[in-house]
Amino acid sequence: MSNPPNAAVTPASPAAQPTARSLTVMLWIVATGFFMQTLDSTIVNTALPAMATSLGELPLRMQSVVIAYSLTMAVMIPVSGWLADKLGTRKVFFSAILVFTIGSLLCANSHTLTQLVLYRIMQGVGGAMLLPVGRLAVLRTFPAERYLPALAFVAIPGLIGPLIGPTLGGWLVKIASWHWIFLINVPVGIVGCIATFIFMQDSRNPDTARFDIKGYVLLVVGMVAISFALDGRTELGIQQATVLVLLILSLACFVAYGLHAVREPHPLFPLDLFKINTFSVGLLGNLFARIGSGAMPYLIPLLLQVSLGYSAFEAGLMMLPVAAAGMSSKRLATRLITKYGYRSVLVTNTVLVGLAMASFSLTSASQPLWLRLVQLAFFGGVNSMQFTAMNTLTLKDLGTGGASSGNSLFSLVQMLSMSLGVTVAGALLTTFTGLIHKVTEANSLPAFHATFLCVGIITSCSSWIFAQLSADIRSTAKKTDPSERN
């Protein structure tokens, strides 16, 4: 866990005060690192069929490539801030870029699906540390009056990365090959390592508390066990009895962490956070509502390519209405919350998001292009409003004391739900395609229809969580980190 930015920190060396030029370069370094991390969370989605063909795999069995990256980031987020406090921000950020770059190079040279998954895990280890450590470096280097504009600058590339990822991935597959999805990170990573070594100020916290290794292990085992339980049956052929054991193990680990956190003086995530109603409801709502939102960037490009015959580039272009509508609707969410309150907006909008997802179960090859674009734009708009409302609700009442641990736990839940979203979507898709004797482009559409319908139902049902809010909660109590509003 990282400490609040105003905690006592010690420079790693008695360097002079940073110049305006070095501060500007440092902002660009952190922003670029955040862009690389978020870009790689979506850029592979449109390239999965091309990867499958190259590696001799089925396109509908490639979800582990996405899961490996997001689950690894969820696992590594809790330890990244503590490492920066203990070892120094510059050293850890430099290491994060280096590991991410080497992982990208190895991904591009993978010859089997197993190799690609292992190297994506390596990518995730580096990627998980880029934003938390980079943000911590900014907070400790910039004067207080420049915090907000600095964090806003860092946040913008992080918002752009996931939006252009599918289109960029499809374009690279069209003009070159899927390998370049990873190779483009290499020159950026090399420049980033050099710039970090020269320009980034180094600081560490001498009063860093002992890392809660027991609590960390319990959470990691719980997250990995539930992921394997959901995905292992379909992709690894794990038997039903083993799946049941993994689910029980996951539940036991989460319960054990709760008992541990009560006794531990400095737990990884204090249970007192859950006494804040808006945080606990927002966190649980994020976890379950984002399962559907995490599944859609994986499912839509697959649907377009496998069942409707789109090329990777065409599938990527079809994701642009989702991104454009998402950017346009963010301000609308704030106005609606101010007027109607969080509960009304979130309950209604969660159902709308679920219906938008379920509407893809009506997709057909004869569907007019204009109607498909409207459908994608509608989903992008309501999905973006959902993120804005959920995120501000979760963080609004944390206050200064719980900001550090609350933000870290929130980031963990975001990445875990993305992983679970692809895991659930892959498991459903594999189950439904298993009911078909021989999967072809012509007959795979019913399996997608059933999967979209199930994902939509799961998302709509999560509206019950937000119904537990008080009706009079309307405005944020404090300003939140802009980089968290994704």
UniProtKB/TrEMBL annotation:
Gene3D superfamilies: MFS general substrate transporter like domains (1.20.1250.20), Multidrug resistance protein D (1.20.1720.10)
Domain Major facilitator superfamily (MFS) profile: 26-474
Residues passing through the membrane, by range: 25-44, 64-85, 92-111, 117-138, 150-172, 178-199, 211-230, 242-262, 274-292, 298-320, 340-363, 369-389, 409-436, 448-469
Entry's localization field: Cell membrane
CDD domains: MFS_LmrB_MDR_like
A GO MF term: transmembrane transporter activity
Pfam families named among the record's database cross-references: MFS_1 (PF07690)
Keyword annotations of the record: Cell membrane, Membrane, Transmembrane, Transmembrane helix, Transport
Membrane disposition: Multi-pass membrane protein
Matching PANTHER family: BLR6921 PROTEIN (PTHR42718:SF46), MAJOR FACILITATOR SUPERFAMILY MULTIDRUG TRANSPORTER MFSC (PTHR42718)
Name assigned to this protein: Drug resistance transporter, EmrB/QacA subfamily
UniProt organism field: Paraburkholderia phenazinium
Lineage: Bacteria, Pseudomonadati, Pseudomonadota, Betaproteobacteria, Burkholderiales
